[in-house]
Amino acid sequence: MKRLNVESVDQHICGTVWTSRLSQQLMEEISYNIGPRPPGSKAMKEAQKYLAANLEKLEAVNVHTEPVPVLAWQDAPSELELISPRKRSYESVQCVHSASSSLTAPLWDAGTASQEDLDRIGRRVEGAVLLIGGHTISGVKYVPLPQQVQWISERGAAGILLGSMYQVAGCPAIELATVKKSALPVLGISYEAARELSSAAQREALKVRIKSTGESFQTRCSNLTAEIGPSKGGCESILLGAHLDSFHLNPGSLDNLTGVVTLMEVVRALAPLQAHFKRRLVVVIYTGEEYGFVGSLSYVRRHVQELDSIRFVFNMDTLFPATAEGVAVMWSPEMKEYIQSGFCQTQRRVDVRNLFCMSSDYLPFLLEGIPAARPADWQNSMPVWSHTAMDTPDKIHFDWLRMNAMTFAQLLARMLIDTRPLPAKRKSPAEVESLLAEEQVTEAIRSFGLLA
Asked: What is the pLDDT of residues 172-204, one digit of tens each?
């Protein structure tokens, strides 16, 4: 077999990606003809079937689905009305897994819903509806919404209004309130509505009426998996993943069809090179990332006997121009240096940093000690319509996807063809526990049900 040189690999990848129309075809078919893909929905199954057929065309093998139990969500209309000192109605969306309820209560602005903010309100929290800002960074500590909901519930509040982080005119937040059924109703409202209510709450006493009727229910969904490269037993593997699911009412084009179709472009570019692979590329298209990483958690539990052979996890979630220029590597300084060296060979200027993140499907693998990385936005330039009904395909430029696909296909090609051992080392449970404590995220991760 003729040995490949890196120049020919790069030429093949760039030419293949730049001339491809696969991204556009996949994006338009899934966005326009299939639509939002909540876990357990008919649309999710249709999108998986469509992608499976395309993976087989791309010469992937062992293309199949694996069942995932999910707590799914039946959306229903919600109501929010300011009733005192004046009357006004606001558009709202009931957050996933929050309680059905009908109540009238005082409204207090709880800011970031940190413990300090809740202490400031004190006993007035009891029986009140709290206005909060959603996922926040409090100091150096990431505070996810499920943890905020837990804190607020423990303080005796009656309900929550969640202002959208995304400054899209008139679009309420669509978020996961908790990974289990919540005792509290949580209604998402727009960024503007939250600012208006916050400003009013600083000046006068407010009272609101809220009504929510959505329900959680248990069902099954699945992950879609495939492979390219060596099939012999005991072979090392690199896992490339992206989540397909979206919230209800959310077409999910940015989050995360950009990740899914870029993954498919990477597979398309790498498949002709697989005779030269020294490692297997395992492809996983997850369900349930938006519902608390249930698809990736299920994969880890299902494949526990194979985790030692997974040397590295690369996860694609919400891609745009800046993510083609950055990589966050978690818990492996050696892999950070290896990846940086690989990009130097491609002559691409990619800023590779060691930075722990806990916002996507690599997290269950990290908790098993497996090093992981993701494309990263160091410019803080993520488009503002993620997790809203405005996340539609007309806003996606296909050059964004080509840029990301070329960059990361070149990186993965080097990792798959390299005859040297990868520097990634799996951490022990004690090392994982220590790293979580160092990052101050143990309680936050526990709120997603990922830790005992």
From this structure: 988 999 998 888 999 999 999 999 999 999 999
**Residue 394's Cα: distance from chain center in Å?**
21
Delimit the domains of the chain by residue range.
6-73+217-447, 76-213
Q: What percent of the chain has pLDDT over 70?
A: 96
- CATH code linked to domain 6-73+217-447: 3.40.630.10
Instruction: Tell me the one-letter amino acid at 148.
Output: Q
Question: Phi then psi for 173, rounded to 5 degrees?
Answer: -65, 140
Q: For residue range 206-224, list pLDDT tens digits in order.
A: 999 999 999 999 999 999 9
pLDDT in tens, 53-103: 999 999 999 999 999 999 999 999 999 999 999 999 999 999 999 999 999
pTM, two decimal places: 0.94
Q: Over the stretch 306-316, which tens digit does the pLDDT of each residue have?
A: 999 999 999 99
- What CATH class is the domain 76-213? alpha beta
